What does this fold into?
Amino acid sequence: MSYFKILGFEKEPFSTSPDPDFFYLSREHEIALTNLLIELRLKRGLSVILGDVGTGKTTLSRKLIQELKDREDFVFHMILDPSFENEKMLITALVRNFEIEGFKDDGLATILDLREALEKFLFQKGVTENKIVALIIDEAQKLNESSLEILRLLLNYETNEFKLLQLVLLGQLELHSTILNIPNFFDRISFKYTLNPLEFNEAKEMIEFRIRQAGYRASMHLFLDDALREIYENSRGYPRQITMLCHKALKRLVLRNKFVVDGALVTEMLQEEARAGWQRKDSLLQKNSY
It folds into this structure.
């Protein structure tokens, strides 16, 4: 039997997979999601979300996808690894993944053929069918300047009233400096936001939210306040680190045949990791929106 079932859960509460049903909407995540939906609905073109490693960008993107699936007027695709060597690879990926009809993917098409197929598709969906075409790119810091320039050109496909392609980039903080080096790309950003680590109260709410989502119904709290404080201070408010520490704490709870995670249990766990050389030495610093 899995450890989480022993504790009364129906599902694993602290998986690090980006399950949108377990996504805790902090104030900043809610601001980002709400604004993204507004930008997409208004067809304003380009939005950029930045955040340090583990601040919840990927899960935010899955939550956005979940929202778009419930809307019949959206056509969307998500790119998880945008490491494209050249323009043809990028445009081919878009043509293939948007499943553009009438295009023969035989590898013989020229860049001009690919561009024309994509432009016709965007016009057909956006104007004739009145759909909103959205491209969401995770790990956008992997985009090189050449790929960003291609995406900038795609944003030029527009009517007098709106952009035909809606582009959402989610990337680590180094994407900021890359974009700043391309002024005519930066100037096209309609919405830009940087995700920060959680405050203590938000971290506490996140833990309680995930516990409830996993089906825990007992009235007893699994994490005491001193344990929550230890977890928060060690994770520095980063959602991924909070999730991993809670997972480890619950496993230890079962192995020690205890009923509640207290500060001593978390401290012992962290000390063991430090002695084994597994504690992070780098400093995780909060970044402000740009």
User: Anything to note?
Assistant: The longest strand covers residues 165-171. The chain has two domains: 3-17+198-275, 27-195. The two ends are 47 Å apart (CA to CA). Residues 27-195 form a domain with the Rossmann fold fold (CATH 3.40.50.300).
